[in-house]
């Protein structure tokens, strides 16, 4: 993305100045710019960091992007995490490198399927603040982030009700700022003439809330309309004649982002004004990118009896049946 934006600016300048001079050198001296992206989650068994470099040169930047040598350093960087509590270093983590094969055609304009990443399998402590340092041959980079702590959904408890309007309720987490709530309705489906019952699901994004601060313990909620649940099913479920369906669990999912991650999302949300310059947010000292934390909570609950009865009796065209 950095290369494409730089290329666009360069092409614009070349058009502006080509008519008045043929001596303009649009390529400045090469500058080693390191790009870092990492989102820490204490519940993950592996912490991943993507560390690359920006590139610039004559020719097609899209072709440069397909070459791993354009983005990767030709030596291993010294990447470390220091866990800090009350100003005292408690934990030191050294990252190693690994090549993963998770990119497919169409996933990215950069090289694929192999991706060089830095990783660690050390446990992350939510009581610590972590300082990231990256030492390279020419300079050093640094950043820091607190770790979003665990939090829980207080409502719904065991059952979720869509017969009336209700709230999703939770307490904010330490270091957590932005909370996005999604409901996933799971169900089983048996098409006519088939012997295979398929597990399926429908997602319903409820919205986003922000805590007043990142101290944690704040009572938070997000309301939903029960009628929208049924209309969502009507819109999303494929109309199949004589289909049989059975309601399953409902997953209440709350994804939480740290203050740094929230700022990054807000800044990079862009603007509707085409004449405005889109700002760039980075919390990497000595480079560019994002080092932050996140946490995702999933709470499975059951449909209330009244909700399931309404689904079966008032929406027969959807094909839902009572559980055996």
Characterization of this structure:
The chain has 324 residues and is of the alpha+beta class. It folds into two domains: 2-17 and 30-147, Immunoglobulin-like, CATH 2.60.40; 153-259 and 296-318, Immunoglobulin-like (Sandwich), CATH 2.60.40. It has helices at residues 2-18, 61-65, 68-71, 226-236, 259-267, 305-314, and strands spanning 34-40, 47-53, 78-85, 88-94, 96-101, 114-120, 129-135, 140-146, 153-155, 159-160, 166-171, 176-190, 198-210, 219-224, 244-258, 288-303. The termini are far apart. 24% of the residues are buried. Residues 1-26 have low confidence and may be disordered.
Instruction: Assign a percent range to the helix content.
Output: 10-25%
Q: Which sequence of SSEs, written as H and E, runs from N to C?
A: HEEHHEEEEEEEEEEEEHEHEH
Q: Give the number of helices.
A: 6
- CATH class descriptor of the largest domain: Mainly Beta
Poorly predicted runs of 5 or more residues: 1-26
Query: What is the alpha-carbon Rg in Å?
Result: 25 Å
What do we call the CATH topology of the largest domain?
A: Immunoglobulin-like
Largest sheet: 9 strands, mixed
Number of self-contained structural domains:
2
